[in-house]
Amino acid sequence: MDNADECRELKDELFHLARVALEGRPQDMHLLVRKLARRYKAEDGALSSQLTDLLRKAPVRGSPTRRAEVAGLPLDNDSRLPLVRLLETPELEIEPVYDRTTWGSLRQVVDEQRRLDRLKEAGIEPTRSVLFTGPPGVGKTFAAKWIARELGRPLATLDLSAVMSSFLGRTGNNVRVVLDYAKAHDCVLLLDELDAVAKRRDDSTEIGELKRLVTVLLQEIDEWPASGLLLAATNHPDLLDPAVWRRFEMVIDFPLPSREHLAAVFRDLLEMDEDSPWPVILGVALAGSSFSDAAQRVRRARRMAALNGGQIEHQLEGVVRAAAESLGRDDRQDLALRLMRDAGVSQRQASEITGVSRDTIRKHDQREGA
Length: 370
Description:
The protein is an alpha/beta fold. It folds into three domains: 3-57, no CATH class; 64-253, P-loop containing nucleotide triphosphate hydrolases (Rossmann fold); 259-369. It is 57% helix and 7% strand. It contains 18 helices and six strands. It has helices at 3-22, 26-39, 45-57, 64-71, 100-114, 116-121, 140-151, 160-163, 171-184, 208-222, 242-247, 259-270, 278-285, 291-308, 312-325, 329-341, 347-354, 358-369, and strands spanning 84-87, 129-133, 155-158, 188-191, 229-234, 250-253. It has a six-stranded mixed beta sheet with strand order 1-3-4-5-2-6, with helices on both faces. α10 (208-222) links the parallel β4 (188-191) and β5 (229-234). α2 (26-39) packs antiparallel against α3 (45-57) and α14 crosses α15 (312-325). The longest helix is centred in the first third of the chain and has 20 residues, at 3-22. The relative contact order is 0.08.
C-alpha cells in the first residue's frame, strides 16, 4: 500500500470514528477502537497498547431504555423495553468465512439491493425476504451484520425476549410495531430465532395466541416492500410452520465450517502470518465445531496466555490436547495423521498432542500410504 492509500484510509478511519462518537454510540466506538488496536499492533505497538488501555478504562455505560427512547425505537407498552436492537453502523471484528454456495447467495442478496434500478428497468423486484437456517454458532447473525454493513444500512434485530410479552394478547401487536418500524426506516431487519414465534400451527402444544402470531407474520412478510430487506434466522427449521417457509423468497443454509474455514478464522483471530501452522492445527483438531464454539476456545487461550505471560502456542497446544481427549481411539489416530499431513507437524509432536504412540501413527501412516 503506497502513502496516498495509507493517507486515504487514515482519513476514512478518522471520519468513521468521529461520526460514531458524535452519534453517541459507545458500543460501536469500543468495537472500532478495538479493531484499530489490533490493526496497529504490528506497525506501532505503543499506539496499540494505548488504545487497549483506553478500552479497559472506558467501559460502555448508559441505559438501553433511555438510548432507545432517544433513538425513537419501538418500546413494549408494559416493560418499556426496546423491541429491537439497532446497530446504526454494523462493524465486524473479523471478516466472515463461508463456503462457496453460502457466499454466492449472500452476495446475490447484496448485489440485488445495490442495483435496484437495473432490476426495476427489467420489471423485476429484488429479493425481499431471506431465511437463514443452520445449527447454532455457524454465522447466521454474523451474515446479517455483513449484509447490513455492505449495504450501508442500520441493522435492526427483533428482540424476542421483549416481544414475547407476558400479556400474550399483545405479542402480535409488538411484532406489527417492529415490522412497521422497519418498513418506515431504511434498514435491514433480522428476525432472530424465528422458530420462537413462528411455530407450526398444527402443534397441539401451542396455545391459540402463538398460532395467531404466525398468521400475523405471514401477512406482514407478504406485504414487505421491495425497497426493504427482511432476514430471519432459525436453529430449528423443523419447528417452523410450512406456510412460513413458502413466504421467504430465498433460503440460505449455513453448514458447520470445514477445517479450512476454521483455520482461516483462527488465522484472523490470532493475527498469525501464513507461515504459522497453528491455525491449520486448530482447524484439524476442532473439526465439527461451530465457528462460535471454536472461536470461544481460542479466545480463552489468548486470555490465559495474556494473564500468565506465556506464549500463545503453549495455550493453543492445550486446546488441541483437550480436543483430542474427547475423541475415541480411531478419531485420535485420524487426528494424529491429519496433523502430520495437513498441518505439517512432526510424528513426535503429533504423538505428544494426541496421546497416540509413534509406533501406531507410523503403522497407520504406512498402511494408508500403501
